[in-house]
Amino acid sequence: MLPGSTEKPSVCIRFGPYAYICNMSKKESITLVRPVNVNSKSVLTVSQLISLFEKWLPNPGNYPRLTRQFIQFCLSSNLPITQATLQVYGEGKSGNKISPIKKFFMFFQVLGFPGVVADPPAQKPIPANASFLIDSYLREAVHLMGEKTKDNYTQALTVFFKFMHEERTAGKHVTFTSQTVNTYIQQLKKKNLSAFTINFYLSSVKQLGVWVVENAARLGLNEEQVKALDGIRKIKGIPVERRFHKDSLTIVERDEFLRNIDNPMDKAVVMLMVTEGLRTVEVTRLTVGDIDFDNEKISISGRGKADKKTIDLFPDCAEAIRNYLTETGIAATGHNGQHLFPDMTTGQIRYRIDRYLKAMNLKRKNISAHSLRHTAGQILIDTGADPTWVQQHLRHELFETTLLYIKKPEAGLLPETLSTEEI
Q1: pLDDT confidence tier of residue 246, bands split at 50, 70 and 90
Q2: What is d(CA 386, CA 237) in angstroms, rounded to the nearest whole number?
Q3: Which of 94, 228, 290, 340 is most buried as measured by Cβ atoms within 10 A of its Cβ?
Q4: What angle do CA 181, 186, 187 make, to 5 degrees?
Q5: Residue 83 belongs to what domain range?
């Protein structure tokens, strides 16, 4: 016990190959903390020592963290781990920063004051050139908004390059090609990850591959390497089992909904929402010129933003819009600046869609006109579309918003994490 301490003493009890420490100030709490061979001649790393200390404490709180800081100070300053050093370290610090370390000295005494060394440097999970490639890509990936999104991508890409590194270490010839990515996906499947999580990991690799191809000259790639990389974008994701409706219709319900709409204008409006994922306000702002049939694109102005975003125009939606333009005569008399649906308001769209939903017994709690946009996103995800592509198509600023279209009860809203040590 430390001089002047009011703490009750701790007693070390040996039983079999282990030592137990009974902290008498905690009403007979006994905790297994170490093998008996930890003594004054032992040498522990900082993390090993802190781990034992944490197990000994009934309620660790911030004690391990503050103690680690003190020990690292001792090692970096080449000072002994003693109370005299604590006095130097504690100068100017508040009592609540020092009392955890005083507690540590009680534990340290019971261990016999073993030697302590710094933790070995952490091994890099991937080669430096792979880390450089990931960092360069993420700096330029403007479609990945938010630090959390970039953290997710960093982890996913790190797992992939760790896989490549270990394959090479095992003597296999692997390079960043579609064949390697396919082998990687098979490895992920063996980890019993969900289809959505595997698609997310695949999507991150595919997006990196696209970026590398686009920057081939700057990265010094030859034509053969570019060709091998280009095949990665053609790898398809695996279908996702539907586990959660984000206020959306199923594919069967969507198809039934569309079959029962005969009005050409209503059909075009609904197709824009339920297949393309447009919001009601985006539908009302469309002009004739925003529909590019030749290049199969739609230009969208949404949420008060001046810049338009372009997305793919799907064949079924294009056909519905053509029929509407022909039936109304807009195809012959309209001009590019004319609204596609003149005088249409968001309220009218909601009213018409609710009417159809009720008529087909599809109206239920949380199903509304906006649910058609959710339906578009959900079905794209369910059928194996790249989550990042879905994010761009639906014009989500944050990738986490796209992830909400899948909810895994056992893993929350984000993809399951896969440690770089697992592959």
Answers
A1: low
A2: 7
A3: 340
A4: 95
A5: 10-117
